[in-house]
Amino acid sequence: MTDSQRSSRAATAAAKRRRLTAAAAQVLHHKGVERTAIADIAQAAGVPVGNVYYYFKTKDELVEAALTEHTATLDTLTAELDRLPDPRARLRGLVTAWVTQRETAARYGCPIGTLAVEVDKRDPGGLDESVARAVRRLLDWAAQQFRELGTDDPDGHALTLVAGYQGMSLLANALRDPEVMTREGERLLAWIDAC
Amino acid sequence: MTDSQRSSRAATAAAKRRRLTAAAAQVLHHKGVERTAIADIAQAAGVPVGNVYYYFKTKDELVEAALTEHTATLDTLTAELDRLPDPRARLRGLVTAWVTQRETAARYGCPIGTLAVEVDKRDPGGLDESVARAVRRLLDWAAQQFRELGTDDPDGHALTLVAGYQGMSLLANALRDPEVMTREGERLLAWIDAC
Amino acid sequence: MTDSQRSSRAATAAAKRRRLTAAAAQVLHHKGVERTAIADIAQAAGVPVGNVYYYFKTKDELVEAALTEHTATLDTLTAELDRLPDPRARLRGLVTAWVTQRETAARYGCPIGTLAVEVDKRDPGGLDESVARAVRRLLDWAAQQFRELGTDDPDGHALTLVAGYQGMSLLANALRDPEVMTREGERLLAWIDAC
Amino acid sequence: MTDSQRSSRAATAAAKRRRLTAAAAQVLHHKGVERTAIADIAQAAGVPVGNVYYYFKTKDELVEAALTEHTATLDTLTAELDRLPDPRARLRGLVTAWVTQRETAARYGCPIGTLAVEVDKRDPGGLDESVARAVRRLLDWAAQQFRELGTDDPDGHALTLVAGYQGMSLLANALRDPEVMTREGERLLAWIDAC
DNA sequence: AATGAATGAGTTTTCATTCAT
DNA sequence: CATGAATGAAAACTCATTCAT
């Protein structure tokens, strides 16, 4: 086997893994963990069912991959916001991004929040920690902004911000009303300005 | 058949239904809708599996009963709070009750909130409406207090309050940390005082 | 207990039995034996489920009652036809009656014929004999007409006639086409005339 | 994977599907649709129950496969008869084949006819159409023979022939008497000769 | 006889995971 | 690594029949 064949295969394999991860993130968000069969993810990724297990040994690993994927999406967003000079502007940018996603939130809820709820009901495993990690990543970033802003108790403020987001996403979803995102989003913006 | 016999049997049947409803509320909250088998609820209620279907035709009906049960619990609480003369005291009482439940919230989340998330992933049915109704009941009560308090936009304030509760419950659960309830609960109390 | 009470109860009981029999005949014809639950028949008869078993010890007995009911309906018809002086006219009247029922036949098939098919698949019991008896009743009446007509092999002719009826009912039902009844009915009339 | 391996496995899979189809055709004919459990078919085919669903997504699909199988059997017969030069001889051959099957007919009825009756009682689905198609296949072949014979109204004659077959099968089954097939078969032969 | 409730065996269907090639 | 096929353990739901009153 030549090096190029090997690396091409590796590339294919990596691509497949990426496709599976992306499919898992999307399908698990839309259908929920328990209602999603491995076959659903395989199909969405265009991968034969039996092959999935060469990339993910269990369904839980796919859930974890989805969690990681959503975290990565979040990282991309915060990385972009980090280019703004003003921490307040960054926080506002985050809230604005949430509001922009209002239709999705009203239909499917926050990807990480709903996964958190579903994972909590699954038998104890490393997933709880993965969820906590995903949540903490967001909390930490927000706390850093509040810190740079000179706010007292930046962790508390971060908690309030993220709780506000999770709460409004859950209510928007439960009431199937994207306007909840708009209203609460504006309140959060005003709150940030007042910090 | 005498009246007393009839009513005694009716009482037994009604009692069984109540036992099943209570069991459903508890087990579904703890294990989640998808992870709970009808047999789990039957066992918790001390009823043979086959007999459950005499009282509830489908699993969804049990979920609905659980939702109703949680709403009733909430109603009991708000009814008690309604005896307080001051709307602000009532709102504070609600928040205090939430904080008191912090261990449960950290372990299992808010019963209605987590059911809302899980139900959203189940195939469309009357359950979405049941969830929305349960959520709206809480929103309406809160809005009424804000109205009596003379706050502008009572509905908006109610939304903020309930979103705050759902958000803090979800985070407490995701982080397995009851302290989240305490901290955010205090913030909500201060916010109510400032309204 | 007075005599009138006793007889009134007896009357009620008899009436209930009749209602159950009629309901069984209708529901079993429309929904089929296996798809019909005892509860369906009870409901159609306006009788509480538990009570059915005081009149019919098993589901099979209800099927038998339905069979008897359909036979009785047939008897009523043939008794009426028997008032006609001409055996040929009687046979023609029978065929005409079948054609008149074409919509029902196209939708549900012949009551006795479909019951015969379904009963054949049920575990061996007296029902096979009940079915045979119902079928023979019709065969015998037809044979008698052919005999009076002076036809040779009246039994064979009866067989042909009834087979024709069962065949056209089955095809009308399978094709959901009442016209099958009309066309084959006319052929049978011509055949009778030629006998 | 080599081509031969692939085809060998494909052959095995196809063979299993064929075994399941054959088993379905036989067992459903003998025990009836409602009295046959998937497990019965699985056992008859020597396939584990869970595996059946890899080949047939629902019980209805198995029924449809059985219907197709019976149609195929019929096609084999008519294809053979098509080698006869005379359309009359072909029709006679068909009737003779029916009579040859008299013991089976007396015990279980016509496979397609009894399936037609049972399917009619099942909830609406594509099965009605499958039944109609199976019946029409036979009607069409018969009509073609009558057409070649120069008979007027070949469709009507086909209907008469097939109705005759269904009727005599049903009666033979209901009376558990294969002689019905013999007698009516002879009559049909004479009728064909007279056409 | 009357009746709501109880029972428990049976049936279809789903799916995570494993295996043979 | 690839892949179609296999497996077996649930799980929801149905229902004839029985029972307690």
The greatest interface between two protein chains, and residues involved on each side, is:
A-B, 40 and 39 residues
Q: What kind of assembly state do the chains in view correspond to?
A: homotetramer
- The CATH architecture of chain A would be Orthogonal Bundle
Please give the count of helices of chain A: 10
Report how far apart the termini of chain A are. Answer: 62 Å
Q: What structural category do the secondary elements of chain A indicate?
A: mainly alpha
CATH class category name of chain A:
Mainly Alpha
General form of chain A:
elongated
- Number of E strands of chain A: 0
- The mean pLDDT of chain A is 94
Largest sheet of chain A: none
Could you estimate the helical fraction of the residues of chain A in percent? over 70%
Secondary-structure element series of chain A: HHHHHHHHHH
Pfam families (chains A, B, C, D): TetR_C_13, TetR_N
InterPro entries (chains A, B, C, D): Homeodomain-like_sf, HTH_TetR, Tet_transcr_reg_TetR-rel_C_sf, TetR_C
Keywords (chains A, B, C, D): DNA-binding, Transcription, Transcription regulation
Protein name (chains A, B, C, D): Helix-turn-helix transcriptional regulator
